[in-house]
Write a structure and sequence with these properties.
- By secondary structure, this protein is an alpha+beta fold.
- It has two domains: 77 residues, Glutaredoxin (3-Layer(aba) Sandwich), CATH 3.40.30.10; 115 residues, Glutathione S-transferase Yfyf (Class Pi), Chain A, domain 2.
- 57% of the residues lie in helices and 8% in strands.
- The chain has nine helices and four strands.
- The protein has a four-stranded mixed β-sheet with strand order 2-1-3-4, with helices on both faces.
- It starts with a strand and ends with a helix.
């Protein structure tokens, strides 16, 4: 059985959603629930980053895009990755874009002190403001380039859909997109409402 290490309101929601789409058994381990769970994560991933996914054979996968690609290739009937090679290439490109541009900016917003030699409050706030501005612009670019590849409601959401739906929830991105890219914002809300994904998202972001 797959074991997914994460916690509420985290990137692990994208992997949990993907596992649900694969229709396979898995165990979600909340690393904030106990010191033992946090220690188990550290043994598997010294960076203590989530999501971390342990395969049934004991192998460890980290990095959201890599995990989603693994699941898509291992369970092709899930539809996480398109069958058409050209479409699959664009899905992988889109996921890589999100993790390198959007996810990375969120890391700076959440932990600005990691990127400052002297983390005084003025420097922290300036760095956070710049990273947030860059993040929102990166989502604008993503919306302009990848909206045509996202879920339209008549098919099964894929890996790019679940990753975009999760990562766009942070640092005011949804609020920004509501005004800046309303069509893309509507796509994200459609993904949120998918009957397989909605329960996962509700567990991570209860109303």
């Amino acid at each position: 059985m797959y074991q997914l290490y994460g916690h509420q309101n985290s990137g692990a929601a994208a992997i949990e959603a993907a596992l649900e789409l694969c229709e396979i058994p898995y165990r979600f381990i909340d690393v904030e629930a106990s010191p033992e769970a946090a220690h188990a994560l550290e043994k598997l991933n010294p960076l203590k980053q989530i999501p971390t996914l342990q395969r049934p054979d004991g192998g460890v996968l980290t990095e959201s895009a890599a995990i989603l690609i693994h699941l898509g290739l291992t369970f092709p009937s899930s539809g996480l990755l398109p069958e058409d090679p050209a479409e699959r290439d664009q899905t992988i490109r889109g996921m890589t874009y999100i993790v390198t541009n959007c996810y990375a900016a969120i890391g700076i917003i959440d932990y600005p002190e990691r990127w400052l030699a002297v983390a005084d409050e003025s420097s922290r706030q300036n760095l956070m403001a710049g990273a947030r501005q860059r993040l929102h612009w990166s989502w604008d670019v993503f919306a302009d380039q990848f909206s045509g590849d996202l879920y339209l409601g008549s098919e099964t959401p894929g890996a790019l859909d679940v990753l975009a739906a999760v990562i766009s929830r942070w640092a005011g991105s949804r609020e920004h997109l509501r005004n800046a890219r309303p069509g893309f914002f509507a796509w994200l809300e459609r993904i949120d409402r998918h009957p397989v994904l909605a329960p996962v998202f509700e567990r991570h972001w209860p109303a």
